[in-house]
Amino acid sequence: MSEPSTAHPEIDVIAIGNAIVDVMAPCDDAEIARLGMAKGGMTLVDPARAHELYEAMGPAREISGGSAANTLAGLAALGAQCAFIGQVAQDQLGEVFAHDIRAGGIAFDTSSRAGDPATARCLIFVTPDGQRTMNTFLGASQFLPAAALDDTVIASARVLYLEGYLWDPEEPRKAMRRAIAAARNAGRQVAFTLSDGFVIARHGDDFRELIATGQIDILFANEHELAALTGVEDFHTGIEQVARTVPTVVVTRSENGAHAIRNGEHAHVPAEPIAHVVDTTGAGDLFAAGFLFGHVRHRTLAECLKLGAVCAAEIISHYGARPEADLAALVAEKIR
């Protein structure tokens, strides 16, 4: 292992994740049933199914998405310096994604990929109760090569943030392993979000190995993902178990708020009150944004959780997983 970098980090957070454009439309429960979708879930679809669902959608909005990219959008809106690594194709949606992320003040230098498959898209059906049913065509995002990484840039970031969803395809998994090595060789921190139960079902052994070997400094999960990772149903037992190995563990519990343990210190915050839940897409992503912003700004553990809760509440108050309110002003009002 090389000597840790003594240089001051130039980037607060660099993230690797799926480069996806969200296509969102309202619908009712009857349409969910008619189309054979599992309400509130996330399903990977092939090009034919993606076309079928897109044709069935009502008027839709196209908004750049992807879990880690959403987190960076929140971080950048709060004032953090961010960079993103993800693969798009040389097509219209690839241009949309690149434009949107750069317009948000996030560095994005990954070269687009020629030919098929197309840029990834997530077709999201939102029911009146705010639940989102996601159908994801991963497309070009599955083909992020390790060669797209610049180890020097990764070493210049205070935190490397990795999206569990992208662990599924082989090529980006290798890229993420290389990124972890580059970050740790430079003495930087590695944050990881478990993303979804289906990812843990497929790659839980990998994640448990990363944790056991001390490769993860900050772990994000919701309470269901925590149970899937540990095999322990009791929430408090599960988070304590993971915290024995991971320095910072952050677990969200929807309307029951969020908990964190950092180096033995415990903290909890309730969910932020909100008049009406419009769309839960991106709530976890923006929670991670708020928490990480507090973390890189050396805020207390309770303040980091509060920042996460405020950002998550903003995102579920409207359609889409990118903030619409002035997040910096919002957190300044909520957190003195």
Your description of this structure?
- The longest helix has 16 residues, at 170-185.
- The protein is α/β, with parallel strands linked by helices and 336 residues long.
- The N and C termini lie far apart (42 Å).
- It has a single domain, classed as 3-Layer(aba) Sandwich (UDP-N-acetylmuramoyl-L-alanine:D-glutamate ligase), CATH 3.40.1190.
- The protein has twelve helices and 14 strands.
- Helix 3 (67-78) crosses helix 10 (283-296), helix 8 (223-230) crosses helix 9 (235-243) and helix 10 (283-296) runs antiparallel to helix 11 (301-315).
- A nine-stranded mixed beta sheet has the order 6-5-1-9-10-11-12-13-14, with helices on both faces. The chain has a five-stranded mixed beta sheet with strand order 3-8-7-2-4.
- It has helices spanning 29-34, 47-56, 67-78, 92-103, 151-155, 170-185, 197-212, 223-230, 235-243, 283-296, 301-315, 327-334, and strands spanning 11-16, 20-26, 42-44, 61-65, 82-85, 107-108, 120-126, 132-137, 157-163, 189-193, 218-222, 248-252, 258-262, 265-269.
